[in-house]
């Protein structure tokens, strides 16, 4: 079993000395959430930022029609909640524990203090926000230009890279359900099931219960017409 990460493993704090980390860690609260538990809800005050030490978190939005849209699947080493802390506004998304998880919770005042006094933390926060913008831009393009099969292939490529690699034989553990994947790629569960089955017949992947093995990585890249 993978050991729980510490503050030194968070993207914001990589490279900081133990003497710099100690007072930061002393100001944080360790929180535990069970699978499916609400961490915070859209429209509530955003006065804390969270760091994922163990487990995974889903950022979702419920439409007026009751459809769930998954914006991101957040894993260990990452932060969330910083946007509303920076703007002083309300939470724009609801966050749920996708699995049992442990998080560090940081007061918003401390985040602002670190931005003011620590250039490395400030650069890491800016870098993370820029990467998020690029990721959302790519997703908008996929949703507006590409079909379900291509969006599914792109998602599997991203998932493989995030979880360890895209080499032939690589295994992705704790794969989201078909319904969760559908909410991420903007499709329905049946379309995702058909797309995964098609990739299986093509010999691109092997899917099992909560795992997926990459057999032919090249088959996961979008098929372009000549």
What would a concise description of this structure say?
The termini are far apart.
Write the layout of secondary structure elements.
Blueprint: H1 18-26, E1 29-33, E2 38-40, E3 48-54, E4 57-62, E5 68-74, E6 79-80, H2 82-87, E7 94-97, E8 101-107, H3 108-117, H4 119-145, H5 148-162, E9 171-173, H6 178-185, H7 189-201, E10 205-208, E11 211-214
Helix pairs in contact: 3-4, 6-7
Notes on the protein architecture:
The protein has 226 residues and is of the alpha+beta class. The chain has two domains: 7-144, Jelly Rolls; 147-220, Orthogonal Bundle (Arc Repressor Mutant, subunit A), CATH 1.10.10.10. Helix content is 39%, strand content 23%. The protein is built from seven helices and eleven strands. The chain has helices at residues 18-26, 82-87, 108-117, 119-145, 148-162, 178-185, 189-201; strands spanning 29-33, 38-40, 48-54, 57-62, 68-74, 79-80, 94-97, 101-107, 171-173, 205-208, 211-214. The strands form three sheets. A four-stranded antiparallel sheet has the order 1-8-3-6. The protein has a four-stranded antiparallel sheet with strand order 2-7-4-5. Strands 9-11-10 form a three-stranded antiparallel sheet. A hairpin with a 2-residue loop joins strand 10 (205-208) and strand 11. Helix 3 packs across helix 4. The termini are far apart. Residues 146-218 form the HTH crp-type domain. One of its GO terms (molecular function) is DNA-binding transcription factor activity.
């Amino acid at each position: 079993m993978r050991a729980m990460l510490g503050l030194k493993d968070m993207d914001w704090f990589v490279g900081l000395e133990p003497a710099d980390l100690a007072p930061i860690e002393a100001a944080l609260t360790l929180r535990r959430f069970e699978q499916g538990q609400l961490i915070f809800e859209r429209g509530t005050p955003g006065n804390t930022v969270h760091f994922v030490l163990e487990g995974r978190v889903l950022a979702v939005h419920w439409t007026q029609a009751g459809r769930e849209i998954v914006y991101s699947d957040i894993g260990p080493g990452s932060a969330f909640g910083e946007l509303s802390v920076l703007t002083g506004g309300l939470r724009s998304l609801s966050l749920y524990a996708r699995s049992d998880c442990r998080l560090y919770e940081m007061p918003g005042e401390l985040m602002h203090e670190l931005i003011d006094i620590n250039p490395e933390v400030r650069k890491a926060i800016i870098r993370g926000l820029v990467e998020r913008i690029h990721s959302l831009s790519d997703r908008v393009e996929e949703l507006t230009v590409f079909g379900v099969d291509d969006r599914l292939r792109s998602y599997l490529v991203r998932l493989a890279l995030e979880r360890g690699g895209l080499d032939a034989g690589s295994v992705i553990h704790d794969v989201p359900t078909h319904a969760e994947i559908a909410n991420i790629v903007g499709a329905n569960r049946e379309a995702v099931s058909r797309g995964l089955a098609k990739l299986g017949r093509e010999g691109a992947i092997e899917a099992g219960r909560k795992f997926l093995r990459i057999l032919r990585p090249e088959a996961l890249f979008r098929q372009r017409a000549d």
